[in-house]
Specification:
two-stranded antiparallel sheet, 2 helices, 9 strands, about 20% helix
C-alpha cells in the first residue's frame, strides 16, 4: 500500500561540466500539495565532478561447462548528499509542492538525488528519467 507521496525528475540539460534536472513532487494526503498536473517546477543541478564511480571487481570463474568466464561486479559507494550540498557541488531549488524539508531542501528532491547517483553507479550513465514513489 502506498503512503501517497513521491516525485519524478527528468533531465533537461547536460554538458561536460553539469547536468540539470527538473523535478515534480506531490503529496496526495494534503490538498494543497497534490500537484495533479505533475508540474516540473523544481530544479536539481549536479556538478559532474562530484559523480562517484563504483568499485569494479573482476574475476575469472569456471563455469559448469568447464570454460572460464569473466565476472564483473560493481560495488556501490555510499553518497553523502548533504556534504555535496554544503560544498556547492549539488544545488536544489525547491518545488512549490514542498511539504517536508531536510536542512531546508525538499525531501523528495534529496531522495531523487540519491536515486540519480545510485543509477549512475549501476549503469555508468546519468538516467534521463527517475521517479520516487512511497
Amino acid at each position: 500500500m502506498s503512503l501517497g507521496y513521491g516525485g519524478t525528475c527528468k533531465k533537461e540539460l547536460e554538458d561536460e561540466n553539469m547536468v540539470i534536472y527538473s523535478y515534480s513532487s506531490y503529496n496526495l494526503n494534503e490538498e494543497q500539495f497534490r500537484n495533479p498536473d505533475r508540474i516540473y517546477d523544481g530544479t536539481i543541478t549536479i556538478n559532474k565532478s562530484c559523480l562517484i564511480e563504483p568499485e569494479i571487481h573482476e574475476k575469472m570463474k569456471r563455469m559448469p561447462s568447464g570454460r572460464k568466464k569473466l565476472i564483473v561486479k560493481r560495488i556501490l559507494k555510499n553518497i553523502d548528499i548533504s556534504a555535496m550540498i554544503e560544498q556547492g557541488q549539488l544545488q536544489i531549488e525547491n518545488s512549490k509542492n514542498t511539504w517536508k524539508t531536510l536542512q531546508g531542501f525538499d525531501y523528495i528532491a534529496v531522495s531523487l538525488c540519491r536515486m540519480i547517483f545510485h543509477d549512475y553507479q549501476l549503469n555508468g550513465v546519468l538516467p534521463d528519467i527517475c521517479s520516487y514513489n512511497v
